[in-house]
Design goal:
Rossmann fold; mainly alpha; 56% helix; 786 residues; seven-stranded mixed β-sheet; 5% strand
Length: 786
């Protein structure tokens, strides 16, 4: 392989003919972390030039370094592309606009349940020899994602069809208070054409159908903008050493087939849900005694077609998951691709059927939605329980003591996604019902189950507040214990008790990240119990008249009503905050960056379980990095350090896995403030667990990791003791001095997660890594690994 590359250089196919003149070239490719950064800040120079990329993601250099590789006529090696002393040319890859560049993306917070469900797919435990069980895990998460789509659309139907068009428009007292519903009211003096119930439902159904269309459009547009970049193509010879982790597979960062299939299936599911809501109400009326036989037959045929469509949707979701072994550029069969078109045709036929003249039909009570929401909640609960069993089996096959929640993080996060969907749908429905009817009780209101789901929020918040209080008390105790450690860290310096307390408190607060699994476990467990209680309470309320329940259990009845009202208002407050944050993001760059941090962490992974989740920025960033690294090393024959901070270290590791073995041996990896093991290794053990990180160390050979005890995000990589040379360095001292010294006459700041490059150890580690990379040939693999 190396001899072939030497011939390519000599022939001019892989780079300039004067390769020996570039043998000492050294480059540091900087990758920033969460929140974004400017190229001027990363390169510490106000004069920067974009040398590759676009407005979304690009590579920058200092103006003086733009053409540094072509300076072959100078005798001073420092003026060329780096030198052997460890001073490489800095180059910055800026990807912040992939997540927080557009202020309108703040409104993507409304898609939070979809994003959380997608994260559950990647949280599966490490498995050894259980291919079918792994596929079953992915299938269960995809089915959970499908139920979330149906739940969201059903909630939109509840608001638009049931509460607005059926109940309020059909009730004279409610329609009079909302003049914009006058043309739908059956008491309209002109006898409006839209006043019959079927036509009201048909018109209102355009709202949830438009929501489905908007989700389809956003998914298609964001895939084309962010995830359609093809990774670097590799041959079978190049892939011989990259099969130990899935992130190294050629097709991992290109999921065109699966995303297209899921997008079509979820779009069809949404349209079929709207059609079923309209057709179900009309068909139920047509089956009453004395109804027209033709309409009754049409109703049965339409409902049968909807059942067939739903079966095809479930079949499409249950098909094979991601294809990662190769770059899959194909599409599924026409039947799968045309599911949205077929669902749209059924939806149009449903509108025609519902709009048929039925003079004796009048809206009364609620639409039959209680059973629908109850069925969705029941199916979600069963799927989460089965998913927990599968995750436990996978974890037991290859136990990882560092895995979050003993391998049950995926089911717990899937439960959180279902809880978020239920709370949002229940809260919105209850708020709209209160807004339409107020306190007059002129309309029946939202289904009983949605009202009970809104009541889950107050007790859940109480549990979280108790848990936060307990953790705060533990953190204060840890801070007191850390004071003695801080005193020993700075021997020979005069100590300031207040500064000691501040440093100890910062260290103690940084440990809260490691207790994240406890919060997730408590929230998901309480959410499952409260959700079950809400389902049972709703069933009991439907079977027991409200007056009888109030006299039999007055305290329980009063507490339930209080929790329902408070939960409804809390949901309304939450949505107001979402809108406020979105509007603020239009004007405030810091707010836009803060909101973008949520997506930097949550949208790193490809959309494998839900196509309507926010887009995966890594499907653009990782190919960008691999292309830049490969082309630069091939053109110059030089050495390169990938320098990744925070989330940038995760992108750097993913890019290193995608490199060919020959290129990877010219690359060193420098990570700092890195969550590779502390967050990703614990929450995503199948992809960043000990085996995967050990394989990365084996592949790149040169890797150093820097961290601080005051850093709440970064931490050690924790490779096995027999991994030589060691990746983790001793924790950096933070602050550099306790008090005022000759080197630090002013108080040194506590840096925590930022400014790692300001530490003297950073430059020393970078120089050491470059010295390990021989400029003539790629670094040789240790004999033990051969």
């Amino acid at each position: 392989m190396e001899r072939a590359q030497e011939r390519a250089w000599s022939d001019g196919a892989a780079g300039p003919a004067e390769r020996p003149d570039h043998a000492g070239a050294a480059l540091e490719l900087l990758v920033h972390g969460v929140g974004g950064a400017t190229p001027e800040h990363m390169l510490d120079d106000p004069r920067t030039v974009r040398i590759s990329g676009d407005d979304t993601a690009a590579v920058f250099r200092r103006a003086d370094d733009v053409e540094v590789e072509t300076r072959t006529d100078t005798a001073d090696p420092d003026e060329r592309a780096g030198d052997a002393a460890g001073r490489p040319v800095p180059e910055a890859y800026v990807w912040s606009n992939l997540t927080s560049g557009n202020s309108a993306r703040a409104l993507w917070l409304l898609l939070l349940p979809f994003m959380v469900a997608n994260l559950a797919h990647w949280m599966r435990p490490t498995a050894r020899g259980r291919v079918r069980t792994v596929r079953l895990y992915g299938l269960l998460v995809r089915l959970v994602g499908l139920t979330l789509t149906v739940l969201l659309v059903a909630a939109a139907c509840e608001v638009a069809l049931d509460l607005t068009a059926w109940q309020c428009a059909g009730t004279p007292a409610c329609a009079e208070r909302h003049s914009w519903l006058g043309f739908l009211s059956p008491t309209d003096s002109d006898g409006g054409w839209w006043s019959p119930p079927g036509r009201r439902l048909a018109l209102a159904s355009l709202v949830p159908a438009a929501l489905v269309g908007l989700l389809w459009y956003l998914s298609l547009r964001t895939w084309a903008a962010y995830e359609s970049e093809q990774p670097l193509s590799r041959t079978a010879e190049d892939d011989e050493d990259t099969g130990r982790t899935s992130l190294a597979r050629p097709g991992f960062w290109y999921g065109r087939r699966l995303v297209a299939r899921l997008r079509g299936a979820h779009t069809a599911a949404g349209l079929l849900t709207v059609a079923a809501a309209v057709a179900g109400a009309a068909a139920r009326h047509d089956r009453e005694p004395g109804g027209p036989a033709v309409l009754e037959t049409l109703g049965w045929l339409l409902e049968a077609a909807l059942v067939i469509g739903a079966t095809l949707v479930v079949w499409a979701v249950c098909r094979r998951g991601r294809s990662e072994q190769h770059l899959d550029q194909g599409l599924d069969a026409p039947l799968v691709r045309h599911l949205p078109l077929g669902a749209l045709v059924l939806f149009a036929l449903t509108l025609v059927y519902a709009g048929w003249e039925r003079p004796e039909w009048a809206s009364d009570g609620r639409l039959p939605g209680d059973a629908t929401f109850g069925g969705i909640v029941l199916v979600q609960g069963l799927l989460v329980i089965v998913l927990g069993v599968v995750a436990h089996l996978l974890h037991r096959s290859d136990p990882d003591p560092r895995a979050a929640m003993r391998g049950l993080a995926g089911p717990a996060v899937a439960m959180l996604a279902c809880a978020l969907g239920a709370v949002m749908s229940g809260g919105v429905s209850q708020r709209v019902a209160d807004w339409l009817d107020g306190t007059r009780a002129a309309i029946p209101g939202a289904p009983v189950l949605l009202t009970w789901q809104a009541s889950v929020i107050p007790p859940l918040l109480v549990v979280l507040l108790v848990l936060c209080g307990w953790q705060a008390w533990r953190t204060l105790g840890l801070a007191r214990a850390e004071r003695a450690v801080v005193e020993r860290t700075y021997p020979g310096e005069s100590k300031d008790p207040e500064r000691t307390r501040r440093i100890a408190r910062t260290r103690a607060m940084a440990t809260l990240t490691d207790r994240g699994p406890l919060f997730v476990a408590a929230t998901s467990t309480v959410g499952l119990l409260l959700g079950t209680g809400a389902l049972v309470g709703a069933m009991a309320t439907e079977q027991t008249p409200s007056q009888a329940a109030e006299h039999t259990h007055p305290f329980v009845h009063g507490a339930a009503e209080t929790a329902q009202a408070l939960g409804s208002w809390l949901i309304g407050l939450g949505f107001i905050l979402f809108v406020t944050w979105g509007r603020r993001a239009y004007k405030d760059a810091s707010a836009r960056r803060t909101i973008g941090i949520l997506w930097d962490v949550g949208t790193f992974w490809p959309r494998a379980a839900h196509p309507f989740a926010p887009p995966c920025y890594a499907e653009r960033a990782v190919p960008d990095l691999t292309w830049r690294i490969t082309t630069w090393t091939r053109t110059t024959g030089g050495r390169l350090v990938i320098s990744g901070h925070s989330q940038g270290s995760v992108l750097a590791a993913a890019a290193a896995w995608q490199l060919t073995p020959t290129v990877r041996k010219r690359v060193a990896l420098l990570t700092y403030g890195s969550p590779l093991e502390r967050l990703y290794g614990r929450w995503f053990p199948a992809h960043f667990g000990p085996a995967a990180l050990t394989a990365l160390h084996h592949d790149v050979d040169c890797w150093a990791n820097l961290y601080r005890l005051t850093d709440p995000i970064g931490g050690p990589v924790r490779l096995p003791d027999d991994s030589e040379p060691e990746v983790d360095r001793e924790p950096l001292q933070d602050p550099l001095a306790h008090g005022r010294t000759d080197l630090h006459p002013l108080p040194a700041p506590v840096l925590g997660h930022s400014e790692y490059q300001a530490d003297p150890a950073f430059g020393a580690e970078r120089a050491r890594l470059l010295a390990r990379l021989r400029p003539e040939v790629p670094a040789q693999r240790p004999e033990a690994d051969s």
